[in-house]
Specification:
single chain, alpha/beta, Rossmann fold, 9-stranded mixed sheet, 7 helices, 9 strands, 25% helix, 20% strand, globular
């Protein structure tokens, strides 16, 4: 686990390092090098489609979902206070390119988490509805909740529901109770955030001791994710979902293990930590 002052070299790809065997001498293999979160900033293989999901949600999903027999994991999303879905569209289209279905609540008041959970329930219903493009295509047991600012607090509130398997609070407000989360959580702060200060987000991470939790501080990021900081965030969110919902073992090393990819990306992340359950 990296302290706030620890520095290491940036890992830009997944590498495998092994120790050479020496006759009559037992030498332990060196650990595999970690994967950089920036690997997941690249677009995935699918084109993205945007559609309405009833009056309350906007959906993003792979364009070939009807012809692809795969069940697709889901991300439910909450906007910041007064924000719109369009402001986060770069993230949603990126996730759809990686095969995820996103249900973003059409509101700037999603702190209760209920608006987000309604998106999950809508997709679960569509999964069994005759004639739906999502029929048989939704992995109903693989749902993540994420959001920004008030929506980040809403993600924590939604994360208490059994439908949600993992939670990603981004610069979260005070909504929700982190001790009610029942799956892994990734807390993100901005180093230069004056709206939801980094120390506050880290405090919520530290209080979340009943499940595996990871904390990342985006280097130089304000609350509004200016410039390149939004791409660092997109890569990390994608990597988190790739491991926790899709079982991608390369993505696991972005967050877990000694010298994780998040630890090593000093140009993108100014701090990272893991609690005792995050192994």
């Amino acid at each position: 686990m990296r302290s706030l002052s620890r520095r290491a070299l940036l890992a830009v790809a997944a590498l495998t390092v092994t120790a050479a065997a020496v006759p009559q001498t037992a030498i332990a293999a060196s650990p595999a090098a970690s994967t950089s979160p920036r690997v997941y900033e690249k677009a995935g293989p699918h084109k993205a489609v945007k559609a309405t999901g009833g009056p309350a949600h906007t959906l993003y999903y792979p364009a070939d979902i009807a012809s692809d027999a795969t069940e697709h994991p889901v991300l439910i999303w909450g906007n910041g206070t007064g924000a719109t879905v369009d402001q986060y569209e770069l993230l949603f289209t990126h996730l759809a390119s990686w095969g995820y279905v996103v249900a973003a609540a059409n509101t700037g008041q999603s702190g209760s988490g209920e608006e987000m959970l309604a998106g999950a329930r809508h997709l679960i219903a569509e999964n069994s509805r005759e004639g739906s493009v999502f029929r048989g295509r939704i992995a109903t047991g693989k749902i993540a909740a994420a959001g920004h600012s008030q929506g980040g607090g809403g993600a924590i509130a939604a994360g208490a529901d059994p439908l949600v398997k993992t939670t990603l609070p981004i610069m979260p407000g005070p909504q929700g109770n982190v001790n009610k989360l029942h799956g892994p959580a990734f807390f993100v702060s901005g180093q230069a955030d004056m709206v939801v200060p980094a120390f506050y987000v880290r405090g919520r991470f530290l209080a979340c001791d009943q499940v595996p939790a990871v904390y990342g501080q985006l280097k130089g990021a304000t609350h509004f994710l200016q410039g390149e900081t939004r791409y660092r965030l997109i890569g990390a969110i994608t990597a988190w979902l790739r491991y926790h919902l899709s079982g991608d073992q390369n993505a696991k090393s972005v967050f877990y293990g000694s010298g994780s990819g998040l630890d090593q990306d000093d140009d993108g992340w100014s701090a990272s930590e893991r609690n005792k359950k995050a192994v």
